[in-house]
Amino acid sequence: MDVKKIVAQMTLEEKASLCSGEDFWHTKAVERLGVPASMVSDGPHGLRKQDDKVDHLGVNDSIKAVCFPAGCATAASFDRALVQKLGEALGDECQHEGVSVVLGPAVNIKRSPLCGRNFEYFSEDPYLAGEMACAHIHGVQSRNVGTSIKHFACNSQEHRRMSSSSQADERTLREIYFPAFEAAVKREQPWTVMCSYNRLNGTYASENQWLLTDVLRDEWGFQGYVVSDWGAVSDRVAGIRAGLDLEMPGSMGINDKKIVQAVKDGKLDEKLVDRACERILNIVYRFVENRKPETPWDKEAQHALAADIAGDCMVLLKNEGDLLPLDKDADVAFIGEFALSPRFQGGGSSHINSFKITSALEAAKDAGLRVTYEPGYSVKDDEATDEMIEKAVAAAKGAKAAVVFAGLPDSYESEGYDRAHMRMPDCQNRVIEAVAKANPNTVVVLHNGSPVEMPWIGKVRAVLETYLGGQAVGLAEVRVLFGDVNPSGHLAETFPLKLQDNPSYLYYLGEGNVTEYREGVFVGYRYYDKKDMDVLFPFGHGLSYTTFAYENLRLDLGKTLLENGDTVKVTVTVKNTGKRFGKAAAQLYVGALNADPIRPVRELKGFEKVALNPGESREVSFTLDKRAFAMWNSEIHDWYVPQGQYAIEVGDSSRHLPLRTEITLGDARELPRHYDMNSIFMDLMADPKARALLKPLMEESSRKFSGDQAEGETEAAKEAVSEAMGEAMMRYMPLRALISFGADEGTASKLEEIIRQLNGMS
Ligand code: BGC
């Protein structure tokens, strides 16, 4: 469709009006010109298509659909193919239902375990979040349905989400908060990007020209339309200028009128309105022209897929003495309401109206397992009465093993507000303690969107983290507990021992409307590793019913001075050394070993999920590009690889990396240097050109200085400053010190000439 031609025929009023939604979920039609409306819906882990009663907080019903595991769970799969499958299923649903864009994936970084929306987000790690985002987008868009990667950017808290300003420095944005968006835009071209509610360094994302145009379009090459988060527009005219194309859900025409007025007053270039319209129509027509309404939506088949996905996301955190998997013939007590009615999704705009839910209890009964049930606690009353606990204990005593289904009730975490603490409900903790005392074979199965403290961790033998595993979670739980599925999930975030350990703890909610991201790039394991802190479970951790060996790390390092396009290839062998089929999540980390500049100890730069039969081994290769070693340099405003040593580590968690090697490399470019009288010798001496030019002057000065001293020097003075100490002190002297200490009258002008030459030369 020639959208330019359509836009050329539209009146200013029609164009302004196209830049906001018709209602909650539709763009506007322009009947006069035959332009159709198009529908968008949430997202991200299921379709929340609403008919009549609409809202953006998941309060009102939507059509019956399939709730897949949430982002917190799918990221733990470390499996791109799996996430892509989820995306394909979503895309099919949208084709079937006529939804042009499904709002997701949500890729905000988990800065604190407290963020109420962490359950929708992928990770504390930008690389993992980016890979998952690409897989999700690839899947959905392969069905000619659009995605809306969200919330751009720095929406890592719900507290004051529509007014607070996330204050982050350039390097932190580039290294932590942007890469997931960047990877997705560059590699997958999401049809739309959703800007966040918050301000970024003072300016609302919805009117932030640097964010929406300079970075997103000019640098990364984004071609779709930018949509506001629902109600995120503050100044609509500024938004049009900045690159916010579509306002959702609209503002009863008020903002449309402002756009018209601004054009008429000469304050807004009409071309910018045309630009927004063209971008919106491009996407509207992309869907219309690729419609496949006959696409079937087999909900039962997708329920089965949801169970398969959930099984591969679950993280076996602890399994002392191989308690799991449980014997299928054993008497097992299921305790806890979540065994009967699991918590499998979070609250808010992502809330799916599941057509069916399978609990663990139902799945166990269907499988003919010898399972008894006691509620143990009440979710509604957030309470465990003495009687409930007694009954749970009795059930546990009468069984070979006890499985407590626990976690966070809905009210504890949701879109719209943050958690106040990292604890589980007291009543559930009490039930776990009591059951663990009654039966040494106690397993805890967790349902939560974000890390919790585990005061009972030393008292239970096994812990299975299911996160929010979607509507088929119970089926997947039973498969994992009884060994039909070998767990292979790995944590996409660190579980700290306590909330206070988290790097954002001191500043998380900020003051008033200002939230400073003061921990900078040290988010999650980047912080815990740098400080060498104990954690409850590290990033990347996850056990299996089999064992894997990591062997034979090989490197193919072409050059040591890297240019764009250069790569380093790393190959390892992963072997299943146990007795069961299983899937390993091989992880590769890169760490800069130089003390200067300040960088994390290690950063995830590659991972592969590898399925292996017992005894089988496979070669796994990782291709590291220049970016894998780079950091953001705020002087040149670009990625740069400081010259130095780098560690490459491979293993199955950020704290278990049996393979390690070191390489020396750096950027092929030289950083521009600028010198003045305050430049210090240490920096000057590291630059061969400066060293050569300064040498004669320094020798002269040192001769004079030591000559002067020698005449009156006492033994005590000699002892006070050794030669080595003198040299060490000298390193921090500025150039102008040559004028103050022991120079002749000509030194100043000689230095000025040298500085001039050096600056000219660089
Ligand atoms: C959420 C978005 C969501 C939108 C539409 C907002 O409140 O932040 O993630 O897509 O509502 O429901």
Topology (elements, then pairings):
Elements: H1 3-9, H2 12-18, E1 40-42, H3 71-76, H4 80-97, E2 101-103, H5 126-141, E3 146-152, E4 165-167, H6 170-177, H7 179-188, E5 192-195, E6 199-200, E7 203-204, H8 209-219, E8 225-228, H9 236-242, H10 254-264, H11 270-288, H12 299-313, E9 315-319, E10 332-335, H13 360-366, E11 371-374, H14 386-397, E12 401-407, H15 426-438, E13 442-447, E14 462-465, H16 473-481, E15 514-516, H17 525-530, E16 548-557, E17 561-562, E18 567-576, E19 582-592, E20 603-612, E21 617-625, E22 631-633, E23 638-640, E24 644-651, E25 659-667, H18 681-685, H19 688-712, H20 715-720, H21 723-730, H22 737-740, H23 747-761
Parallel strand pairs: 1-2, 2-3, 3-5, 4-6, 4-15, 5-8, 10-11, 10-12, 12-13, 13-14, 17-25
Antiparallel strand pairs: 6-7, 9-14, 16-18, 18-21, 19-20, 19-24, 22-23, 24-25
The structure holds beta-D-glucopyranose.
Beta-D-glucopyranose binds next to loops.
Pairing-aware structural class of the strands and helices? Answer: alpha/beta
The average pLDDT score comes to: 95
Question: Which value, in Å, is the CA radius of gyration?
Answer: 30 Å
Strand sequence of the main sheet, in spatial order? 9-14-13-12-10-11
- C-alpha termini separation: 51 Å
The count of strands amounts to 25
Quote the beta fraction. 15-25%
Count of individual helical segments: 23
Bound molecules: beta-D-glucopyranose
Question: Can you put this structure into words, describing what you see?
Answer:
With 762 residues, the chain is an alpha/beta fold. It is 32% helix and 18% strand. The chain is built from 23 helices and 25 strands. The strands form six sheets. It has a six-stranded mixed sheet with strand order 9-14-13-12-10-11, sandwiched between helices. The structure holds beta-D-glucopyranose (BGC). The site of beta-D-glucopyranose has 8 residues, from loops. Beta-D-glucopyranose binds next to loops.
